[in-house]
Amino acid sequence: MVQRIEFEGNKAVSREDLLKELRLDLSQKVESGKPLPFSTLGPELNEKLSSIKRGLGRVLSVDEISQMQKKLIKMYEKKGYYNTKISYYYKGNTLIFKIEEGSKAYIDEIRIVGNKHLKKKEILSVMETSERNILKLKFRPSLVKETLYEDIDKIRELYISKGFLDVDISPPEILLERGNKYIITIRIKEGERYRVNKIDIVGNDMYTNDEILNISKGKRIKPLDPYDGEKIDFIKKTIIDKYNDLGYLFANVEVNKLVDKEKKTVDVIFNLQKGNIYYVDKIDISGNYESRDATIRRELRLTPGDLFLKDKLLRSQSRLYRLGYYDMIGFDPNVKSDKEIDLDTKVNERFTGQMSIGAGYSQQTGLSFFASLRKGNFMGTGDTAGLTLSLGSRYRNNSLSYLHRWAFYKPLDLGLDLYDRYVNYTSFVSTKTGFSPTLSFEFKEFWRTGVGLTVEKGEYKDIQDAATTYIKRQAGKYDLYSIYWFINRNSINNPLLPTDGSDITLTLKTGTGTRDFYKAVLSASKIIPDKIFYTDFVFSVKGTFGFVEHISKDIPLDELFFVGGDFTIRGFDWGMAGPRDSSNNPAGAKREIVLNYQLSHPIVDRFLWGSVFLDQGKGFDSGNFFSGLYNSVGVSFKIITPFAPIELYYGKVLNPPSGVSGSKFGFILGTFF
């Protein structure tokens, strides 16, 4: 019996790593079978159970030891050793592997010979084996022969998917130069490229063939076109999706290819088995340890008795994500009969309660200390309650707020916010105390409208000599009574990681009292997934236009537009892309235009996204909206945490005004789009 394994000659790899590669249970005499309690076994079965063991403490067969040797040699191959030799011998009950590690080499070049129609770059992209490439940080790539032969199969599949059905690829030639560099040669005989002779869809009785095949130009295929397996797979998916949309939940498509080797053509036949349509019977909800069932059910677009439709299922998922209470939402349909289906709705709840005491800093507010208690999904109802107390040298924000969702069991939201705020803008100080009730309701699937009222008392004080004339005119106490109305259409699929949809909001606001004004802001964003090449890239565009004017008195300073900063034009400090006073501080503008363009791609799915962006815009008092725009470019990273998304960015202003910094690192708690 082998009770222990040891190694000799291993200098490059530790004993622990070698044992880990063998994946043995090092415990002794571990039985794989045990009798049931209170059972009686005969001597034959009892002997069999006691003799079946795993790991050590048993006799190892020659085949097992041979497999161990192969694992160890493969491990050395991955580390770049090409002539490793491993033998073994016994010393008592210890199995000793004697290792001659050999020499180390790396792949210097992979030569592709005979590729007339596919570029070398495209062929290398499907291979796990790679050649030396300093730009890709592949300094000394190792050779694993087993992986290389698997790569040959991948190259063959690539050629077949492109219509080269007769492709012939020779075994790779491996040449070792100067004792440490591999030159790998792969010889390809492409053969002729097959073309599509005809396309037919069997079993399609709900659409015309043209309705299915008339898809995006980049994925369209027609007779006489070169055979393209990727396009064929996409058409298959399109057929399934279209029938899913009609309620055929388990639609399936089998692709048959009839090859004519003489004519070098392929007949592509899509055989559709659409199955049955299903109606929802029961809806079960699980994973909601805090949320009440009603909080989830009221967002679902499917109810018992409804025809089961894929788009309603996806819309239900989007609505639940928009609440911000769940980081994972899944649906599991279970067939109950030929026409009925039960739907299991599974959610994974996020942390919605936040209690924090500490300090914070931002470019606008400086250093501040705070104590905050905020509870989303209050008592599982979907309501939000918040209490904030803060104190800082330049900023104070004390507030009490509550938002009641689905009041009177209708899609009606009622809110109330009581606040006491203090902000030191360097050249003046603003204080305000007030309350603001709000009401909004959903009147269509994607549409919401609402009104809000604000009653506020405040004061502008400690105004410096360097402040502009407009700010000095704001000096003293004031009363303000304002009302606003908004209308919004939002089809964004996920507010944390949006990959599709749009969000458009028009807000009209007017106020009177010691100050008066009227104001309008239009904001629209569009999230566009890549439907040309069907990659994971997402393009986002947003535009914001606004103006504010006085009625007969001065405009309240806080109703002006401060363009520049984290949520407008990244790269600028807050408010610096608009009018500035004589001390070079933001003075606010009567007009704003902000245009944002961003291209994003996941780095780690559902956790880390990277983006590049272009921001344009300005704050101004008069003139053409589109002339004299400031431009900034940069990169950003979005991290999804259990509490909230965090965005880190660097922005570079291409045409900064005189006296304004041209770049900035920024931090956003939340999401830009």
Please describe what this structure looks like.
By secondary structure, this protein is of the alpha+beta class. It has 5 domains: 4-100, Ubiquitin-like (UB roll), CATH 3.10.20.310; 106-189, membrane protein fhac (Ubiquitin-like (UB roll)); 195-273, membrane protein fhac (Ubiquitin-like (UB roll), Roll); 279-349, Ubiquitin-like (UB roll); 425-669, Beta Barrel (Porin). The chain is built from 10 helices and 31 strands. The strands form 6 sheets. A 16-stranded antiparallel sheet has the order 16-17-18-19-20-21-22-23-24-25-26-27-28-29-30-31, with no helix packed on it. Strands 6, 7, 8 and 9 form a 4-stranded mixed sheet that branches. The protein is globular, with a radius of gyration of 34 Å. Mean pLDDT is 87; it is low at 28-41 and 47-53.
Spatial shape:
globular
Q: What is the count of structural domains?
A: 5
Strand content: 35-45%
Gap between N and C termini = 65 Å
CATH superfamily of the largest domain: membrane protein fhac: a member of the omp85/tpsb transporter family
Question: Class of the largest domain in CATH?
Answer: Mainly Beta
What gyration radius follows from the Cα positions, in whole Å? 34 Å
Number of helices: 10
Largest sheet: 16 strands, antiparallel
Major β-sheet strand ordering? 16-17-18-19-20-21-22-23-24-25-26-27-28-29-30-31
Give the uncertain stretches in residue-range form.
28-41, 47-53
The beta-strand count equals: 31
